[in-house]
Specification:
The protein is 23% helix and 33% strand. It is of the alpha+beta class. A hairpin with a 2-residue loop joins strand 9 and strand 10. The strands form four sheets. It has a six-stranded mixed beta sheet, sandwiched between helices. Strands 13-12-11-14-20 form a five-stranded antiparallel beta sheet. A five-stranded antiparallel beta sheet has the order 15-19-16-17-18, with no helix packed on it. It folds into two domains: 229 residues, P-loop containing nucleotide triphosphate hydrolases (Rossmann fold, 3-Layer(aba) Sandwich), CATH 3.40.50.300; 108 residues, OB fold (Dihydrolipoamide Acetyltransferase, E2P). Helix 2 packs across helix 3. It comes from Paracoccus siganidrum.
């Protein structure tokens, strides 16, 4: 197994720099998820790790070995792609053993590896089928099995769940996480889906425009986002943001004259000034009239396990997630406040979270 170290990594396409100066350390046996919007550089970074893209600057180490100029075939890395990339004319068994045969291994050597991987992934009954006779989830397991039989130092996953329906995506997501614990191999997983990132990762790497915004456990990134981008990207629905200003021991919203006590904030607030108040939908509470921020309900979305309330509040549109036992209706006026210690303040100019402790930002 192996760690991965990236030092001042640079990747360019012609005159365009897509990864300007990236530093990241991935520990041995760690499950890392690279997450961010389309075009943020996460898949490019994965291809750089795999050796499918050349590095234009910096260093890449797998274990203690510098691999900047090492071709993909010699990096001992296995990659699982979004489109499965299975050979349609081959059986599952042949697809899984093909790479080993290309390395010169005999059928007697490849057979035990294929059998073991098939049992691990619960696809043993399908070994003699061709891909067209498999479901999407089964094809994805075959693609993972083809990677597993190689016994690589590092597994790379490039949005492998994107082609699956919602139910199957959740099932395979859990299987990949379980697989990582059984194999005890370093894994790097790319996705734009923050739910996948939160549920699978040991640590999340949030990226934007080729740069790392924050690295941390799912809990750290969710509870202590370093800036507005991370706060809005991680969490569904997204964090609500309200312009405000500090007035003594209270926070006054920029429109409507509504106020909240600063004691509700997660971090210490500055003495004065303009700020951006951030509250996640699930951290809103409905309180008696006059004890919170006055809001008017525009839309109600019952989800069964909870209910989303879309409200007009101080000239802004916000979403609150409440218990399904609460039966709000459109047009109703309610009073909202934040759970103590869950509201955040951001600098409106730099977009960074105010009062974050050293080491929380990348």
């Amino acid at each position: 197994m192996a760690s991965i170290t990236m030092r001042n990594l640079v990747k360019k396409y012609g005159g365009v720099t897509v990864i300007p100066d990236l530093n990241l350390r991935i520990e041995d046996e760690e499950f890392i998820v690279l997450v961010g919007p389309s075009g943020c550089g996460k898949s490019t970074l994965l291809r750089v790790l795999a050796g499918l893209e050349a590095i234009d600057g910096g260093e890449l180490l797998i274990g203690d070995t510098r691999v900047n100029d090492v071709p993909a075939a010699r990096r001992d890395i296995a990659m699982v792609f979004q489109d499965y990339a299975l050979y349609p004319h081959m059986t599952v068994r042949q697809n899984m053993s093909f790479a080993l045969e290309m390395r010169g291994m005999t059928p007697a050597e490849t057979a035990p590896r294929v059998e073991d991987a098939a049992r691990l992934l619960d696809i043993h009954p399908y070994l003699d089928r061709r891909p067209k006779a498999l479901s999407g989830g089964q094809r994805q397991r075959v693609a993972m099995g083809r990677a597993i039989v190689r016994d690589p130092k590092v597994f790379l996953f490039d949005e492998p769940l994107s082609n699956l329906d919602a139910k199957l995506r959740g099932q395979v997501r859990a299987e990949i996480k379980t697989l990582s614990r059984k194999l005890k191999t370093t894994m790097v997983f790319v996705t734009h889906d923050q739910v996948e990132a939160m549920t699978m990762a040991d640590r999340i790497v949030v990226m934007k425009s080729g740069q790392i915004q924050q690295v941390g456990t799912p809990e750290e990134v969710y509870d202590n986002p370093v800036n507005v981008f991370v706060a809005s990207f991680i969490g569904a629905p997204s964090m609500n943001f309200l312009p405000a200003r500090i007035e003594g021991d209270r926070l006054a919203l920029a429109d409507g004259g509504e106020t909240l006590p600063l004691a509700l904030m997660a971090e210490a607030a500055p003495a004065a000034g303009e700020v951006l108040l951030g509250i996640r939908p699930e951290h809103f509470q409905i309180v008696p009239e006059g004890q919170g921020l006055s809001a008017v309900i525009d839309l109600v979305e019952p989800l069964g396990s909870d209910t989303l309330i879309h409200c007009a509040l101080a000239g802004q549109r916000v979403i609150a997630r409440v218990s399904p036992d609460i039966r709000p209706v459109a047009g109703q006026r309610i009073s909202l406040t934040s759970i103590a210690g869950k509201a955040h303040l951001f600098d409106p100019d730099s977009q960074t979270r105010i009062g974050q402790t050293e080491g929380q930002a990348t």
